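subagent[fold] <- orchestrator: predict structure for attached chain, return tokens only, no commentary.
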Amino acid sequence: MKPLNLDEVREYVNAHIDTFHENRIASLEKTTVKNLTNKNPYLLRAKNISKASELVEGALAARLSSSEEEHFGQFLEDLAIFIAEQTTGGHKSGVPGVDLEFDNDGWHYFVSIKSGSNWGNSSQQKKQQENLEDAVEKFKQRKGQRTHADAILGICYGKTRTSRLRGYLKLVGQNFWTFISGNRDLYKEIIEPIGYRAKEHNEAYEKALSNLLNQLTLQFIQVFCEPDGSIDWPRLVEATCGNFDLDRHGFSF
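subagent[fold] -> orchestrator:
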């Protein structure tokens, strides 16, 4: 494994973190009132939400949080691949369910990268296991049974200890970043460049977010509020849940 050049890592992060922030803005621009009406109206009613602005802001925050996790997860995955390229000559994998492949100390590794530990349901996790096991098995058949190969699930943040389960080795947080770089402190050293121009980016984002909140709140009031300003809950529930078609399937009510 080659020593990692931290200056090159900083340059990569500085050049690519902009994409994450651009995606945040793009997610705002794509949001409509219709996107916000797919939230659970019964839960909103149970929480006694009576302000249109509060309902819109809460629904928008939930939507954007999910979008940010997805976009930043992609950024971390790409960063991990870049680091492995520098240290091992690794490359982005074309194998289903595998993000990264590299050779080190006589072993060939198939690596699936996740942002955090809370990913996927049981079916998705089982599929991930099958993909990793299949990748290792096919590699050994192609290269010969004496070839060393292993499957790795790399989690970018968290403190879970290293464990082998479901046919792969699970590496989390510091252990994962050390595994692909050989640098025990990398997990801390990348935090500084990730904050590159964060204040500037967030100021632009907050301005766009405020404008969007105002627009969506106005649109929500026009569509889902009574003339006195109160939320028309039956209309909101209908927009979220109304889909009656049982009569087309032989049911009569």
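orchestrator: received. Logging for downstream: The first helix runs from residue 6 to 30. Residues 34 and 230 are 19 Å apart (CA to CA).
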